[in-house]
Every structure is written in structure tokens, then in C-alpha cells.
């Protein structure tokens, strides 16, 4: 027999709870072959106006853990930065506090990333969303000036770790402060090629919403917009099944 669609009337606001209870009951009785889809039709809209989207810049070495148009919950993992390992044998020469400042032009065609020492005192106006012009200072001290007109996308505190190789060359690693062990990675420590410098970092969603991913040269941008859901048929559930005494007793109870 072919499955047909039926409509169940229930209390408005309890549609999803009853849907989940039905699915659990169907699985417990082992009659999945008699049922098809169970739907609570909804209209979903992205909230692009009343609240700003959660925004992340994703560079090529990072991995996006979600798909475009996927709905996520607050606390879901969305981006993963990889582990960092020593490229060569060497000794840690210095570890300093740095700040990454990422700037893009208003048309989003060009970008510039600055790595400035915290000791240079980042200007108070350097914050995400702020407009900036060519020639404006990024720090109170030192020769750190913006080279393009645009907008600050994000700033991030980092640790700059310099490893001096045995041949005198230097390898520089920019790591997130919470991803390395300062008891192990400290000035004077000798590293071997492949030694772990920093753990992977996972970024979690701060809100419930829907994922949108845009691609640009050298990077991707992940946004999460809050969504609003409206029941198209309040108080009704649509169920696909083969109607007989067994399925009817499961549904009506």
C-alpha cells in the first residue's frame, strides 16, 4: 500500500513537541516502514535588520565546520583553526604580545593585515566597524600607519613566538594566547621539528541562527543571522503514513 498524507489537529504551540513524541513512539514500536514524513510547516526569515549578524573572517588555513544555509544553535562549533607545529629544530628566542588588525576597503576588493606589538599601544579608536583613512596611525608609538581607506573588520590579541634555527634563520609563529602552554613554550626552550607549539582552536556560535558563507580572495566570511520562524498552520501537523488500525492507534494516542 502507498502512504498518504493526513492532518492531525493539536494544540497551537505544541506542534514540535507532539511531532517528537510521535517519532519516538514510531521508533519504539518498530513501525517506521508504515510512516513517512512528519511535518510542521514553517516560514523562516533571516533577521537582517534589527540585529547585526555574527561575523567571522576565515583564512585559508582554517576549516569551516558548518554548511551554507545550515541552522546552528548557540554553542555549536563553526570554525576550527589547526594546530601549529615547529617547522625546524631551534630555540625559542622571544615571545611577545601582538595585535592583529585586519582592514578592508569599503568595496571589499582589497585588504591589509597588520601585526603590531602591544607595547606600541594600539589607538583607542582601532575597533571593529570603525572607518579608517590612509595615513592614520594604528598605534600611539612606532611607525604603524594605515595604508588604505576602509573599515576595520576585526582585531585580535596574539602571541608572536620567534624560534631561532640552528643555522641562524628565524621562524615566526602567531598563535592565540589560550592555545599554547606557557609552561612548555617559553623563552629558551629548545624545539624539535614537529613539536607542538599551539593546540587547535575551535570557535563556537554565539547565537541561534542560519549560516551564510561568502568567498573573497584569500579568505572566506562566515555570518550567522538570527532567524524568525512562523507557523504556517498553527495547531496542525502533517503526517505521511499507511492508515490501518495499528497506525491509527499510534497517532490518536
What descriptive keywords fit this protein?
Alpha-Beta Plaits; OB fold (Dihydrolipoamide Acetyltransferase, E2P); 3 domains; six-stranded antiparallel sheet; four-stranded antiparallel sheet; 2 helices; 20 strands
Poorly predicted spans: none
Q: Give the mean pLDDT.
A: 92
Which percent bin holds the helix content? under 10%
Strand count, sense and barrel status of the largest sheet are: 6 strands, antiparallel
Give the count of structural domains.
3
Q: Report Rg.
A: 27 Å
Shape assignment: elongated
* End-to-end C-alpha gap: 23 Å
Name the beta content range. over 45%
**Helix/strand class:** mainly beta
How many helical elements?
A: 2
What is the ordering of alpha helices and beta strands? EHEEEEEEEEEEEEEEEEEEEH
Number of strands: 20
Write the layout of secondary structure elements.
Elements: E1 4-9, H1 15-29, E2 35-39, E3 42-46, E4 54-59, E5 63-64, E6 71-72, E7 77-81, E8 84-85, E9 90-104, E10 111-117, E11 131-132, E12 150-165, E13 170-175, E14 190-191, E15 196-198, E16 201-204, E17 209-216, E18 219-225, E19 227-231, E20 236-241, H2 245-252
InterPro entries: NGN-like_dom, NGN_dom_sf, NusG-like, NusG_add
Pfam families: NusG, NusG_add
Keywords: Transcription, Transcription antitermination, Transcription regulation
How does this structure look, described?
- It is a single chain.
- The chain is mainly β and 253 residues long.
- It folds into 3 domains: 59 residues, NusG, N-terminal domain (Alpha-Beta Plaits), CATH 3.30.70; 66 residues, OB fold (Dihydrolipoamide Acetyltransferase, E2P); 115 residues, no CATH class.
- The chain has 2 helices and 20 strands.
- Strands 9, 10, 11, 12, 13 and 14 form a 6-stranded antiparallel sheet that branches. A 4-stranded antiparallel sheet has the order 4-18-17-6, with no helix packed on it.
- Strand 9 and strand 10 form a beta hairpin.
- The longest helix is centred in the first third of the chain and has 15 residues.
- 15% of the residues are buried.
- The model has no long low-confidence stretch (mean pLDDT 92).
